[in-house]
Amino acid sequence: MKYKYLTDNELFQRVANDDAAAYEILYNRYWESLFLYAYKCLRLNAPAKDAVQDVFIGLWKRRGSLELSGSLRSYLFAAVRYEVLSNIAEPALTPLHDAQATMHLSAPADTTDRLHEKELKQLLATAVERLPFKMKQVYTLSRHQHKTISEIARELSLSEQTVKNQLSKALARLRAELREATLILALVPGIIFFFNN
Fold first, then answer.
1. What is the distance, to the nearest Å, from the Cα of residue 62 to the centroid of all Cα atoms in its chain?
2. Whether 35 contacts 49, CB under 8 Å
3. Model pTM?
4. Own/partner pairs, 98-105, CB within 8 angstroms, 24+ separation
């Protein structure tokens, strides 16, 4: 059978039945556009590739239980959006990478990108504002002012372990907030305008 002529839904049904060939077709069909989307947000090659890879790995792992309420395309882009948001709050990013991601979120290529990337930036800013005061202080000094753990500890008169704990908790809360916000946005077609492009 010529799998490449099947619709996304037909391919996904085959993937749900453990069809690796259908999965490969979907991967090849969407990998480039998803990577470009992730890269426009992050401007970092490896994290963008990782975000897309994680989405496809998740798709395969959940193939038997995943129920789509909309199109597969919408699901894939929403999943990559979540990975991008998680990446922005991820502790593995260096301060330089974090600054680059933030800088590029405010300098998109066109109107569609500008609106979407403004939304991403706003989601993160809102999540940061909801952090408890001390966590927000630690996060802001670390991620926005690029201070080291020891510098933050001295400035706030805390132990380095306390700073590490507060930063770790802040990042966990941010990821949880961003996950919830992304799922809500995925349910509102008018907000996820880029799905209709």
1. 18
2. yes
3. 0.52
4. 98/143, 98/146, 99/146, 100/43, 100/44, 101/41, 101/42, 101/43, 101/44, 104/40, 104/41, 104/42, 104/43, 105/41
pLDDT digits over 79-120, tens only?
888 888 776 655 444 443 443 444 333 333 333 444 455 666
Largest CA distance in the chain: 67
Chain position carrying tokens 């290529």: 109
More confident residue, 124 or 137: 137
Q: Which among 52, 50, 60, 58 is positioned nearest to 24, based on CA atoms?
A: 60
Distance CA 79, CA 101 (A): 18
Tell me the two tokens of residue 112: 């569609």
